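Sample entry was shown:
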Amino acid sequence: MEMLRVIIADDEEEAIVLLRNILLDTNTVEIVDEISSPLKIESAINKHNPDALFLDIEMPGLNGLGLLENIREYNQKLAVVFVTAFEKYITDAIKLNVFSYLMKPVDRNEINILLHKLCYLKNSITTNKPQKLKLPVREGAVYINPHELLMLEAEGNYTRLKTIKGDEFMSSYNMGRLYEKLPKEFFFRINRSCILNGEYIYKINKVKSTCLVCFNGSELEMEVSKTFITEFNRKTK
């Protein structure tokens, strides 16, 4: 598998070393640059064209949010992962189309889940093969890329399909029958009445049995079963 090319940017050397070691231990990442000054980050992005940028938020001179706002003026596709000790910025980060939001100290299992998503994104962009799903709906069929399908919700013997763009479709197929058509490595039955695209899961709260779902500047908190938590952690190791 082709390695993910990433840049790490943090004003604390200790934080860079810790994240570097975690990423390299996965054997899926090539670190193309490590930067401690926020003023050098944009030039490094232009030089290396990385798959992802792991970025601290509170840095001297220019914080991560301001930096990402600058980047988004000319680069909407770069996967930016905030790595921070502050949870208060998550809403602002989502508005800037951040790929993920990790809390310090970084959890190795969260990194593995994140890299799994990044690999899928990179493969989806580079492959030339069509990846659209054909799903039956009342009007006939809808053709959709797996990453655009957010969730399936059971409504009696029918199923409501929701996309990340806000579109909704009703299918006469029950949820279990539709689930057979989905790639199981990305879609998970989080409870009795919902199947969710794991690509948009940012956080799982084991105590509350909930997950935080973030997509296109929006976020949802959804109930999950303990069975799902176990399965999701097993598949994303």
About this structure: The mean pLDDT is 89.
